[in-house]
Amino acid sequence: MRPGQPNYLLEDFMKKFLYVLILVLAVWLAISPFLLGSTSWLRKGVDLAAALVVTVLVVLGTRNSGSKYPAWIILFIGLAMIVWGAIARPLTGGPGGASEIIVGVFWLILAFVITQLFVFSKMSIYDKGGIELTSMSVISFKNENIAIKAILLGSMPSTLYLHPEELWKALPLVDESVIWHLPAFIYKGWKLARRQAREAENKPSPAGSSNSNG
After folding, report:
1. Nearest Cα to Cα of residue 167 among 151, 182, 145, 186
2. What angle is formed at CA 85 by the lines to CA 79 and CA 89, rounded to 5 degrees?
3. How many domains would you assign to the chain?
4. What is residue 193's DSSP assignment?
5. Secondary structure (H, E, C), 157-179
6. Is 0.70 surpassed by the pTM of this model?
7. Digit-coded pLDDT (tens) for 33-81
8. Which of 26, 32, 64, 208 could form a disulfide with 51 if both were Cys (CB 3.0 to 4.6 A apart)?
């Protein structure tokens, strides 16, 4: 990957990894009524059908990583499974629908993350005055450390290494205000990143440039 170029390969890997997690949950959903002793064929049929549909969507999503439609459909199936889990016990008379609810929640979350993966060439850290102190282009794992390719103060290329013990030392340094504000912080970050991604998509490409992801 060239400097300043979005890492489409990493986005593709992340999507496939999330789809694998969704597939594992589908396998569990298909076998859980049998393992948990459910005697209702309605419950077994609904769970198995949902698992098969999601499996097909996972295959479609991994083969065409540029399309987000499979993930959106899985998201709505996740919502349906949450509802089904809530009404499964009174309808079938068997064990509670905790398994369906848990699978539905994770399907919803994982599928939503897939639909919201935006590709950027870097992330930055700023000082109080808004001046960029560090821009980071790649975060990887190397020699038992987290390696971060960065440019310091806009002109000094460097590779920063985060040792495992230093990450552990950081935990007690986190103020409780960070924990309380983290959900809103993440939500705001998602909104701003989505807006920037859409602005980048709508921005006209320079003459002669290629829109290829390769």
Report:
1. 145
2. 155
3. 3
4. H
5. EEEEEECHHHHHHHHHHCCHHHH
6. no
7. 888 777 778 888 889 999 999 999 999 988 876 778 899 999 999 999 9
8. 26
Measuring CA to CA, which residue among 82, 88, 31 is closest to residue 55?
31
Task: Return all residues near 106 (Cβ < 8 A) that are at least 6 apart.
Answer: 21, 22, 25, 78
Q: Kindly state whether residues 97 and 178 are assigned to the same domain.
A: no
Q: Which two tokens stand for residue 169?
A: 């030392």
CA nearest 78: which of 29, 11, 13? 29
Residues in the chain: 214
Residue 195 lies in domain: 171-202
φ and ψ at 207, to 5 degrees?
Answer: -55, 130
In whole angstroms, what is the distance from residue 17 CA to residue 160 CA?
26
Antiparallel, parallel or unpaired: β 132-142 and 145-152: antiparallel
Please indicate whether residue 106 or residue 8 has the higher confidence score (pLDDT): 106
Residue 138, H or E segment: strand 132-142
Stretch (H or E) spanning 211: none
Is there a single domain that holds both residue 21 and residue 79? yes
Round to whole Å and give the CA distance between 85 and 98.
6
Q: Is residue 210 part of a domain?
A: no
pLDDT one-digit tens code per residue, 163-182: 989 888 888 888 888 888 88
